[in-house]
Amino acid sequence: MRDIFDAELAQLGEDLVAMSARVERAITQAGIALLSADVTLAEAVIADDLGIDAMERDLDERCVLLLAQQQPVATDLRIVVSALRMSASLERMGDLARHVAQVARGRYPRHAVPQSLSGTFAEMHDAAVRVARRTTTLLENRDIALASSIESDDDLLDELHEDTFTALLGGAWVGNPQETVDVTLLGRYYERFGDHAVSVARRVTYLVTGAHAAETPTTA
Amino acid sequence: MRDIFDAELAQLGEDLVAMSARVERAITQAGIALLSADVTLAEAVIADDLGIDAMERDLDERCVLLLAQQQPVATDLRIVVSALRMSASLERMGDLARHVAQVARGRYPRHAVPQSLSGTFAEMHDAAVRVARRTTTLLENRDIALASSIESDDDLLDELHEDTFTALLGGAWVGNPQETVDVTLLGRYYERFGDHAVSVARRVTYLVTGAHAAETPTTA
């Protein structure tokens, strides 16, 4: 019985890793699509989000079955409940990648990000890709040192998000309303991406150490 | 044993109703604060969000304890897992109310919403308040007829969100970048509020009817 349960828990872990890897690909491709105005890549990200959503549903069904059939307690129970929550965070990260891709597609053949902010968004993209990659690795190897680097990159994403507001509101902004709207939403998507990754990282940390990290201050 | 379990499930239901009622108050007050530039009310909403977050944590801990101690299966298990998910949606709705209040506070003593869009945001506020009230009532009485009116108001929120883009991008917009940013974010907060309420409504419907409603198409 315990063997079966361990195998099922291991499978759950592998599913989370696979889902995270797919989200990592989505955010990577969405950022490239955004920065290079690549509409084909944007379309691919948008289409693939349905697959990420399906992974979430499968994973959740598996968790519910596991709860029903194995009736886990203590740490095992926390692992299953955490998996339910982490899959929800990963699904939202997939949605955010899709939103970035939708903005890229909507402005094609133009670039959605104005020249003056392309450096800022290139940095956001790099930070988001690092966050996504480390989230996958953290789920894979439970090396909680990665959690703190995810938190650092989340802080960086917050700063870069602030930079976009400074650019928009500093008085020197010459963008049209469409550019203002796009920068506002894109900045928020990247910032939220970091928040969700931190949420996953804290859950893994909690499972490994048994200690709740300070609650994430949810930002706008 | 069953009696205790039924009492605990009933308590869980009551906790969700209480949490939803508090979110309903938050969205109501946040909208009033926004539309009337009432900074005191905005501060109250922002402060109260910590209480909503605490309710989510308590509710989740109770769910995990219930899973551990009662080992529910079948419908009972679905109820507990749904409660975990609904509390997460309600918590996000509370966050969104706080975000609206933060925008109101940030622009005080000015109005965050420009005159030309005050009618649109008054309609969004009304729809959001109806959605919040019906979500509370639905959790209370499980009258799934309410779910369809929540879906209708969510559609209305989507349309009003589109109206804000039309206003911003139609060529006649004369707002400054701060106003463009505020309208962009506020529109999104209200639109997301509807999405989360629909998610709660579909979970209740599923528990009552046993049939999954079509998946929510997640919008930007």
From TrEMBL, chains A, B:
One of its GO terms (cellular component) is cytoplasm. It holds the Pfam family PhoU. Residues 18-103, 122-204 form the PhoU domain. It is found in: Cytoplasm. Keywords: Cytoplasm, Phosphate transport, Transport. GO terms for biological process: intracellular phosphate ion homeostasis; negative regulation of phosphate metabolic process; phosphate ion transport. The keyword Transport applies. Plays a role in the regulation of phosphate uptake. Homodimer. Belongs to the PhoU family. This is Phosphate-specific transport system accessory protein PhoU. It comes from Cellulomonas gilvus (strain ATCC 13127 / NRRL B-14078) (Cellvibrio gilvus).
